[in-house]
Amino acid sequence: MKDYLGYAGKTVVVTGASSGMGKETARLLVELGAKVYALDWNKCDVENIAEFVHVDLSKKESIDEAMDQLPTVIDAFFGIAGVSGAKHDFLTTVSIDFIANKYICEKYLVERMKANGAIAFMTSTAGNGWEKEDNKEVYLPIIEANDYEEIIAILCQKGLQYLPGTLGYPFSKLAMNYYTVYLQKLFAQKGIRVNAVLPGSTKTGMKDEFSQMAGGEKALLSHCGYAGRLAEAKEMAEPIVYLNSDMASYISGALLEVDYGNTAEEKAGIRKIEQEISLKMIMQMLQQKLNNK
């Protein structure tokens, strides 16, 4: 049978490959014949991967060490690693969920990926509203920052380090959704596509954390559209594998919402918007808190 997806023999990198969506993605890519380099903090036990590389995505030096262990030519990159923020502070959450992806793309992938390559991120429907000017006003400075240290400095100048990690999650996803589109100008001229999957509520090892953040499992289920259930991790792995495949050769800049129609209905006004982050409002609350100190 023809290899329609085109992964056989290709060199692919998957971050967050030890659990959840990342693990399912790595497993599927191995089955499709790719040489999978799995990056994560915890050991990846997916059979027949090319190599596991330990990395702390919250630290620039660790990312540098990990990238030094990877091939100099990469066909496809899957930026899937992420944390909810429930167990991390704001800066650590943003470092893992956003800064690591930006740093890897601009420092390494721009040189290591060849024409007809592809990059795909696992972001979130928690980043809906990324296109609103009030939100862009807050996160654009870190999108436009030139290096890792400058991003951290900008976040600290704004006082964002005082926010809880649970707000670092939607902040990162808003930024990542915009960043997926922003990267077109950097990679399109090189013949490299960049897309993202925006999962709805999904059953992973972080399910309990997200349930608590949403206000209970019923609230978490409200983001699942008419499916009436949480998605399985595999149901997010399959779309992101498709987006980086040869079958999606003319798809770039796509933010694929995988939530059983929930976001589409919200945009159409058919379903009430349950929750959408306003970064401007958060910044106003933060400023008031800092002024009262």
Task: Report on this structure.
Helix 3 links the parallel strand 4 and strand 5 (113-122). The model has no long low-confidence stretch (mean pLDDT 92). The protein has helices at residues 20-31, 60-68, 90-112, 133-143, 148-157, 165-182, 184-187, 207-214, 217-221, 234-243, 262-268, 279-291; strands at 11-15, 35-40, 51-54, 74-79, 113-122, 193-199, 202-203, 231-232, 255-258. Strands 3-2-1-4-5-6-9 form a 7-stranded parallel beta sheet, sandwiched between helices. Strands 7-8 form a two-stranded parallel ribbon. It has 12 helices and 9 strands. Helix 3 (90-112) packs parallel to helix 6 and helix 4 packs across helix 6. By secondary structure, it is an alpha/beta fold. Helices cover 44% and strands 16% of the residues.
Annotation keywords:
12 helices; 44% helix; 293 residues; alpha/beta; two-stranded parallel ribbon
Strand content: 15-25%
Helix content: 40-55%
What is the CA-CA span between the terminal residues? Answer: 67 Å
What's the number of helices?
12
- CA gyration radius, whole angstroms: 18 Å
What number is the mean pLDDT? 92
User: Which parts are unreliable, with pLDDT below 50 for 5 consecutive residues or more?
Assistant: none
Q: How many strands appear in the DSSP assignment?
A: 9
Coarse structural class:
alpha/beta
The spatial strand order of the largest sheet comes to 3-2-1-4-5-6-9
The arrangement of helices and strands along the chain is EHEEHEHEHHHHEEHHEHEHH
Categorize the overall geometry. Answer: globular
